[in-house]
Design brief:
The structure holds two protein chains of two kinds.
Chain A lengths: L2 H8 L8 H15 L5 H13 L2 H13 L1 H9 L1 H7 L8 E6 L4 E6 L8 H4 L4 H4 L1 H6 L4 H7 L9 E6 L4 E6 L11 H5 L4 H5 L14
Parallel strand pairs in A: 1-4, 2-3
Helix pairs in contact in A: 4-5, 5-6
Chain B lengths: L10 E4 L18 E11 L2 H4 L9 E9 H4 L10 E7 L3 E3 L1
Antiparallel strand pairs in B: 1-2, 1-5, 2-3, 3-4
Classes of the chains: A alpha/beta, B mainly beta.
């Protein structure tokens, strides 16, 4: 993308379709023309995709914080535990990794951009960037610092490269001072980035820094 | 269906091979020695799926844990930092 393109977009000027946009339109029109899908089905799928947001993942995290039995099941078999909450993650082989005072987990997909979409929605652009994908496995501490998360050297960093069929979600640590909070109130603390492992929940200081 | 040949805790080495085509073993981890973290199950072979074949029989897939300092000799961080990667059995040999 050149600087001229950026400027033109900011000014709201007409932009021709990019290579991939054109591909998408062409493919979609062909599929509709051949009766393989309808425009309505494509639209419904796009809308369903947009409806999935990180609030789903946050519900799972909050439940694990208040229910130790559920947490155990979640760490044993992530997909099955989510089904208990009525969250359908059928196609997702979910592995949940737990942050503790000794270990901080973070997720990346170096080969493409595998992401637990059914729980966290559409991945952020930076997750798909070459910068994040190549550096997260190579210098995770430097990358986390750029996200504003400084992890103490006493804390082990476990980076998960999601290269094949599994998808990952981080179970962040429950912030101190939240005893007796309801699941809804707790879920509101769980931001998307804390479930990828590049942040901690709202109102919490990073591991080893407390 | 191929049997799972490795158990959690066992040391394995990732093959240092460079076949053409769609391969889900990252370059940076080939030739590295790690430890089986868990068996994930068996899944159709992605190298075959990419050629429009069925990828059957399914191949055992593992999560393998590597010490960062062994993957990157100049790694800056804690000696206990680790990297975990999903690798299919046919890419692994006993170390």
């Amino acid at each position: 993308m050149s600087k001229d393109d950026d400027t033109a977009r900011e000014q709201g000027k007409y932009q021709p379709l990019s290579y991939f946009q054109l591909m998408e339109v062409t493919l979609r029109e062909l599929l509709v023309e051949k009766g393989i899908v309808t425009e309505e089905e494509v639209q419904a799928e796009v809308e369903a995709m947009r409806r999935r947001t990180p609030e789903r993942g946050a519900r799972v995290v909050a439940k694990a914080w208040v229910d130790p039995q559920f947490k155990k099941r979640l760490l044993d078999n992530g997909s099955q535990a989510c089904t208990e909450l009525g969250i359908d993650v059928a196609a997702l082989k979910l592995v949940v990794v737990e942050n503790t005072p000794q270990t901080h987990n973070a997720i990346v997909c170096t080969l493409c951009s595998c992401y637990p979409r059914t729980l966290l929605g559409i991945p952020p652009d930076w997750y798909k960037s070459r910068n994040y994908r190549s550096r997260m496995v190579r210098e995770p501490r430097a990358v986390l610092e750029e996200f504003g998360l400084k992890i103490d050297l006493q804390t082990t960093i476990r980076v998960h490269d999601s290269t094949a069929d599994m998808r990952y979600m981080v179970l962040p640590m429950r912030p101190a001072g939240t005893d007796g909070w309801s699941e809804e109130r707790l879920a509101a603390l769980v931001n998307r980035d804390s479930m990828i492992g590049v942040a901690v929940p709202r109102g919490m200081r990073p591991a080893g820094n407390g | 269906m191929p049997q799972a040949r490795f158990k959690p805790g066992e040391k394995v080495k990732v093959m240092q091979a460079y076949p053409l085509g769609h391969v889900r073993t990252p370059y940076y981890i080939r030739g590295c020695v790690g430890e089986i973290e868990r068996l994930c199950g068996s899944f159709p072979n992605p190298e075959e799926l990419a050629q429009m074949r069925d990828g059957l029989p399914p191949q055992p897939l593992y999560r393998v844990r590597f010490r960062q300092q062994e993957v990157w000799p100049d790694y800056r961080g804690s000696a206990s930092d680790v990297l975990e990667v999903e690798i299919f059995q046919h890419w692994l040999e006993k170390a």
